Amino acid sequence: MASFWRNRLSLSIFGQSHGPAIGMTLDGLPTGFEIDREALQQFLNRRAPGRNPWSTTRREEDSPEFLTGLANGLTCGAPLTAVIHNQNTRSVDYDKLKSIPRPGHADFPAHIKYGGHQDVAGGGHFSGRLTAPLCIAGGVALQILASKGIYIGAHVASIGKVKDETFDAVSINEGQLAAVAQKEFPAISDEAGQQMKETVEAARMSLDSVGGTIECAIIGLPVGLGEPMFDGMENRLSSMIFGIPAIKGIEFGAGFEVAEMTGSQNNDDYYYENGEVKTKTNNHGGILGGLTTGMPLIFKVAVKPTSSIAQKQGSIDVIKGEDTILEVRGRHDPCIVPRAVPCVESVAAIAILDAMIEGGKL
Amino acid sequence: MASFWRNRLSLSIFGQSHGPAIGMTLDGLPTGFEIDREALQQFLNRRAPGRNPWSTTRREEDSPEFLTGLANGLTCGAPLTAVIHNQNTRSVDYDKLKSIPRPGHADFPAHIKYGGHQDVAGGGHFSGRLTAPLCIAGGVALQILASKGIYIGAHVASIGKVKDETFDAVSINEGQLAAVAQKEFPAISDEAGQQMKETVEAARMSLDSVGGTIECAIIGLPVGLGEPMFDGMENRLSSMIFGIPAIKGIEFGAGFEVAEMTGSQNNDDYYYENGEVKTKTNNHGGILGGLTTGMPLIFKVAVKPTSSIAQKQGSIDVIKGEDTILEVRGRHDPCIVPRAVPCVESVAAIAILDAMIEGGKL
Amino acid sequence: MASFWRNRLSLSIFGQSHGPAIGMTLDGLPTGFEIDREALQQFLNRRAPGRNPWSTTRREEDSPEFLTGLANGLTCGAPLTAVIHNQNTRSVDYDKLKSIPRPGHADFPAHIKYGGHQDVAGGGHFSGRLTAPLCIAGGVALQILASKGIYIGAHVASIGKVKDETFDAVSINEGQLAAVAQKEFPAISDEAGQQMKETVEAARMSLDSVGGTIECAIIGLPVGLGEPMFDGMENRLSSMIFGIPAIKGIEFGAGFEVAEMTGSQNNDDYYYENGEVKTKTNNHGGILGGLTTGMPLIFKVAVKPTSSIAQKQGSIDVIKGEDTILEVRGRHDPCIVPRAVPCVESVAAIAILDAMIEGGKL
Amino acid sequence: MASFWRNRLSLSIFGQSHGPAIGMTLDGLPTGFEIDREALQQFLNRRAPGRNPWSTTRREEDSPEFLTGLANGLTCGAPLTAVIHNQNTRSVDYDKLKSIPRPGHADFPAHIKYGGHQDVAGGGHFSGRLTAPLCIAGGVALQILASKGIYIGAHVASIGKVKDETFDAVSINEGQLAAVAQKEFPAISDEAGQQMKETVEAARMSLDSVGGTIECAIIGLPVGLGEPMFDGMENRLSSMIFGIPAIKGIEFGAGFEVAEMTGSQNNDDYYYENGEVKTKTNNHGGILGGLTTGMPLIFKVAVKPTSSIAQKQGSIDVIKGEDTILEVRGRHDPCIVPRAVPCVESVAAIAILDAMIEGGKL
Question: Shortest CB distance from D360 goes to which of B77, B228, B360?
Fold first, then answer.
């Protein structure tokens, strides 16, 4: 349960925010693949904390140590395990949380579920820090997929009321995905990105936080990945994507906009282009009946504003059994949306790599 | 894979739209439970076709025959299997689809995936007809949950641009859920319902279809159901909800609106009410860190307009390898949103019953 | 749980001994395969009851009705569901069992587990009758494997103290497997078979039953099926084989004899034969490290004597809470070993077909 | 796949024999449990190499470092991960194996399966060394079960032709299990133990190895654990037990002896003893219909002689494509049976703890 995910690939994420180490085991990878360590580190740096004003000031190197899974530098069929040793922890910040749950966090239901034994320091196993090992797994999956001509990229689609441009759902290409990934702030439009940064800074100055959305595109997919009903690509992707803390919604293709469309508007007509089957529009987001159509797979997720804010909030004392006021200290991101971008790419990569293996395409 | 789902409950859905029978097996139910057959049939009738103007004219009784799983009229620990014998099939309508995929349907990727062997009649295994056995499983699960004080209800939240009222996410109660369920058109506001029906009728008259949204509430849940990361309640619910054809998005609590909120707006403050822990607002939709908080679990899904429309559409002939024009015949719903309401309730019930058993609450 | 099995293939077995029907759903099959119905029926007849002196007198046609999974007579990618309608049931025989558990049956633990709600008629879901749908699934899997050059056959290796010859673990071929399968009593040596039948008849005459062993061989396998540790071929096969009631042991290759061997005796030396890698002996039974080696996969299972015997036995009355004497009536096999032979072949076929799909070999 | 196992507990085993570290993640444990580290280390020492004449001379401390899963020294609901850093590795021993597979090892099928990329050093992921992390998981599970009154113990039942006494299947108690566990050589009879040691020494002196059997008993179980068909206790235990390298057979209760028994001999009559249901004999080994009966659960496994022997053996050179002679160097156990005893206990403990959680008994 919980932090184990298993299909053709198997993934286990372990660790607590302020424990000695966090890590992951990824099993079922194709053999003979050489992980580009430098590219992986660059990918992890996109998520790593302490590097810019919209991130927590807790700086961690997030440099993975590979314990198993490689022989002569290549994947060898054994499970791939990597750990990151936590360095910059200040558990003293969290003492009060043992009895006073933070609004918007897992503290209260975890307290009930685990009988008060859950690790509260830094959010324990519920911390966003656990997305670091998720990104190790995702980073490796992205590299393997890229070697097969499948590319995945995401960008900050909005923060607060500021909206970025969107990917062109029909024509998005590898170069455009790579261009956004290289930016320090991953928005397509630099102007929108600048306004977003200002929105985050404003939230930070008012001891508040702000939410946003992330759009993700996957290109180069074969036709027919996925299975009907409970194993369609939407099922698989959504089932994993909500593993990223703070995600509260997901939509594929035209998503919630389909609710206001007619069939004649929403249906994507087929045609042949150089012998390949394409659709003229891509409201279906590359998935029909749970199966990939070969068109770009497009989805968007909603990210809630960071729950940890320095303002006073109404809470309860579960030991004393009374209402109280909570003032959270600690180091927090005023907006986690930019750092969640590589997490979304990671989950997408793991789900797609798994489907590729299952479909006999790898 | 595919139409098997397995956790503590196991569910298998089988059948094709125009085959001899469709059905389901549900395993892992608590024993000694008496299924109220009349109530189950009433529930199935909410989904059944051919009963009102917004539904296909294909009328089916959808009366389940229970083959196994009962002894002396009570659940006995053996898998529960029920079948519905298809009656009103006209496969002649579908001959053309063997070579010309319908836009918006699974036809094209299924053709590639199954090497041309997929059943095209009525959409085969991809047909919305497969939601009938899903509703058998769901109807049974709903009855068991109700016997434990857990109630699930959904309504048409919008069709086209017409919006219904929303559930009160903090105070929604059993009576309100039951009231909507009893209506022929499941909208909270009768006025909105009337406008929705007119919207559907307009679509039907123009040989078109229209989409919408469905809101679902689950009340009476204990605190702490679900597991962190990949087995949270959002993961579980979304993983199954996309098993309903035509769903393109899901959001929990405030959903995509969180993107424009600040933390101080979005966080739900805790307080005690008669010794029970509540939140003053319910933007979190009853789930934090993947775990239930005891507040109403609220989610909303987007339903695309029926893909089968009688207008001419651009398609391809996969045998001849050329572009062509498709005119779909057959009997189709101008809007599937109302009939999808019990399907959403069903999926929710199965996921919740499973989590209850897993959590040792049943 | 329970009667659901899921990997790349998914299998659900449903039914109770004296319920209206028993059946199975098998999902994940390759498409475009035509099931040879006549050959399937012949295979099922090898297991069917009421046909010879060593079987129960309950005669059932065991003729499967395929509800779903086929289009134009070929597998179409939808789950394959088949049911057998029970005909010859006499539940009156079982009334006493509601309170007095039969020694050697699941009655007592089932009574505790299901709170007295289990179906006792004919053993309910625990009945050997449930191996009929298992053999439908297995019979289909065997046909698909045979079309790929993989053959599976089993024989009665012993009944009581009478032993059959064994397969030659190195050279066993398709013709030898087919020859045993065609016999009414599936022993390699007709003389041993005759003695076995006499042993069974003697048990029947003394109102008793008798156990035995079954040896199974699988030939034509590629090298490298299976996965290390918990997903090796021994794990997979044993995990399913104990789904056949009455199996109490399984051994692969030299099996328990390895306990008395030295490494130099047990190790199977490699050599090339016409460019193919072979081993000179086959003590490893075609599996090393959980992986197939390409040599015949050989395993043997122990089948206990039928628990239902007409002699008086010591039991308890769970309602009255006191010791009592039980005299079982009903119709029972004096020896189930011969009828279990196609069941063993079926389980082997399902496990191997699944591993073939997983390994991308199909 | 492979080294991931998942039900209510989830277990991942990672590592290679000569890699930097080996380890395990165990998820789903009850919270608030304090692991007795000293008792765990003593348990691990029973398996650890380099401590006595019947073990390899590779000495490893096998002292686990817990990276995650604890808060304030208690299990906290987060996955429990522990690693052991390999110390005493000499990979130079294994160079030749890259092209010449050892008879009786996974080398050849692994070479084909992984395209030559498998780690050959020390057997890589197929090494018996991976049972060290298995014993960490098992040791923790054993402690939790003991706190609930469930005790598990195993002993060397035979080595070569020397046989130990057997557990009394009806009356075996905690004290007897503990007594065997404390011995340096885990045989019930010291005399048999002495002869076994001599048998091992004789094998070692002749550059050979020797096999044996292990008997395991589990006492204190509630009635009704397990599920019918594919999830019975025999299925679960066997499915994991073959994860221990070198196991070639498993039997429950009377096991293969049932083949020569009649029903009247094999059936275990019920009776009440102080209000508890017991059987007079225990040929069923505590399992009927896949469900625990409350009687001691007894099973026996066959362990093959160590495949690595220093004698010359016939093999092939997969690079050159020709037959050759192999002389294995390296440090190996002349008999792994004694060190496999805690591994068998470990697997049993994990399977039982999982079934207890599933059955709502914990």
Answer: B360
Best mutation target, D84, D119, D144, D358, to test chain A (most A CBs within 10 A): D119
**Euclidean distance between the first and final Cα of chain A, in Å?**
27
Q: Which residues contact A233 (CB under 8 A, 6 or more apart)?
A: A225, A226, A287, A290, A291, A292, A297, A351, A355
What residue type is assigned to position A306 of the chain?
A: T
Contacting residues of A for C360, CB less than 8 Å apart: 360
| Nearest Cα residue in chain A from C9 | A358
Query: What does the angle CA B175 – CA B180 – CA B185 come to, to the nearest 5 degrees?
Result: 165
Q: What is the pLDDT of residue D1?
A: 44
> What is the tens place of the pLDDT at every residue in B191-244?
999 999 999 999 999 999 999 999 999 999 999 999 999 999 999 999 999 999
Q: List the subunits that have 3+ CB pairs under 8 angstroms with A.
A: B, C, D
Measured in angstroms, the CA of C361 and the nearest CA of chain A are apart by 9
Contact C63, C84 (CB under 8 A): yes
- Please tell me chain D's helix, strand, coil percentages from 3-state DSSP, rounded to the nearest 5: 35, 25, 40
The contacts of residue D343 (CB under 8 Å, 6+ apart) are: D47, D131, D134, D135, D138, D244
Tokens at residue A340, please? 């969640």
Instruction: Please give the pLDDT value at position B1.
Output: 44
pLDDT at D54 > cutoff 90: no
Query: How would you classify residue D143: left for phi > 0, otherwise alpha for psi between -120 and 50, otherwise beta?
Result: alpha
pLDDT at B298 over 60: yes
Mean pLDDT of all residues in D81-107:
84
- Surface of A (33-92) touching C: CB under 8 A: 77-78
d(C-alpha A244, C-alpha D70), whole Å:
22
Determine how many CB atoms are found less than 10 A away from the CB of residue D36.
15
Contact D345, D234 (CB under 8 A): no
The answer to whether the Cα torsion of C360, C361, D3, D4 is positive or negative is positive
- Judged by a CB distance cut-off of 8 A, whether residue C112 touches chain B is no
Is residue D322 predicted with pLDDT exceeding 50? yes
Q: Are A235 and A175 in contact (CB under 8 A)?
A: no
Under 8 Å CB-to-CB from C165, ≥6 apart: which residues?
C188, C189, C192
CA A39 to chain centre: 18
* Spatial contact of D317 and C270, defined as CB atoms under 8 Å apart: no
Whole-structure pTM value: 0.97
**Residue pLDDT, tens place only, C100-150:** 999 999 999 999 999 999 998 888 999 999 999 999 999 999 999 999 999
Residue of A77, A78, A360 with shortest CB distance to C360: A360
The pLDDT of residue A89 is above 90: no
Residue A1's pLDDT band (cuts 50, 70, 90):
very low
Provide the residue type at B264 as one letter: S
Phi, psi of C43 (to 5 degrees): -65, -45
Phi, psi of D359 (to 5 degrees): -80, 5
Quote the CA–CA distance of D227 and D237 in Å, as a whole number: 13
Query: What number is the ipTM of this complex?
Result: 0.97
Highest mean pLDDT out of A43-57, A302-316, C83-97: A302-316
Bridge-based pairing of strands D80-85 and D21-27 is: antiparallel
Q: What is the pLDDT of residues A75-87, one digit of tens each?
A: 999 999 999 998 8
Q: Determine the Cα–Cα distance for residues A154 and A181; give it in Å rounded to an integer.
A: 8
Percent of chain D's residues with pLDDT above 70 = 97
Handedness of CA D91, D94, D95, D99 (dihedral sign): negative
Tell me what pLDDT residue C1 has: 44
**Phi and psi (nearest 5°) for A289?**
60, 25
A3:D79 CB<8 A: yes
Kindly determine whether residue D78 and residue A27, on different chains, have CB atoms separated by under 8 Å: no
